[in-house]
Specification:
CATH class: Mainly Alpha
Subcellular location: Membrane
Transmembrane segments: 12-32, 44-62, 74-92, 112-129, 134-151, 163-184
Protein name: Transcriptional regulator
Helix content: over 70%
Shape: globular
CATH topology: Serine Threonine Protein Phosphatase 5, Tetratricopeptide repeat
Oligomer: single chain
Pfam family, one: Gpr1_Fun34_YaaH
CATH architecture: Alpha Horseshoe
Membrane topology: Multi-pass membrane protein
Order of helices and strands: HHHHHHH
Number of helices: 7
């Protein structure tokens, strides 16, 4: 009787995209509520940033690495560390780490970080064109978010703060849809909720 060697056995793992999108959805909904003036303060937002925005997406990144999915791993990991940093920045601003750090914050430093993330996200948006249309439009909204955040941090008119807030709300809602579609489409074995085919511009459609 032939036996397969352990290295020849293919291990199948679940697609982590749903939990990654869920983490992104929840943290952006909470953060946008503060930007839009629907809620106040950042104390609760910081915890959602750590556990949903950061840890959930970091978990998805690690699982995507096991799938040899460079695009998904890079995207989820980059945004996971973004939310780790944002939660830490909020805690600094609120004086959690002492008055010295709180008094020395310079919002323009955030502007440079947001600008860097904008450039990164523009590249990822091109890549998202060959995933599905829901993910592509999420990345488009993330582009708008970082554009608004960067300009707001550099002292641009308040319009850009509002632009970032509404883009962030859109990210949250569309990510929830993407999460639900990811789970139900796999669960039912068919396209229960449409996510849109890749554009097929840079890669041939399957």
């Amino acid at each position: 009787m032939n036996q397969q060697s352990p290295s020849a056995v293919k291990v199948i793992t679940a697609d982590p995209g749903a939990i990654g999108l869920f983490g992104l959805a929840i943290v952006t909904l909470v953060a946008s509520s503060q930007k839009l003036g629907l809620t106040e303060g950042l104390s609760y937002a910081a915890s959602w940033a750590v556990f949903l925005g950061a840890l959930a997406q970091l978990f998805a990144a690690i699982q995507d690495a096991k799938h040899n999915n460079t695009f998904g791993m890079t995207a989820f990991a980059a945004y996971a560390f973004f939310w780790f940093a944002m939660a830490t920045n909020w805690l600094m601003k609120m004086g959690t780490f002492g008055p010295e750090l709180a008094s020395a914050v310079d919002g323009k430093q955030l502007g440079f970080a947001f600008a860097g993330y904008l450039i990164f996200t523009l590249f990822m948006t091109i890549g998202a064109m060959e995933t599905n249309k829901v993910l592509f439009f999420i990345f488009c909204l993330i582009d708008i978010l970082f554009l608004g955040l960067a300009l707001d941090a550099f002292g641009a008119p308040g319009f850009f703060h509002d632009l970032a807030a509404y883009a962030e709300l859109g990210i949250g809602l569309l990510s929830l849809y993407g999460c639900g579609a990811n789970v139900l489409n796999v669960h039912f074995g068919r396209e229960f909720l449409p996510i849109g085919r890749p554009f097929g511009i840079f890669k041939a459609r399957p």
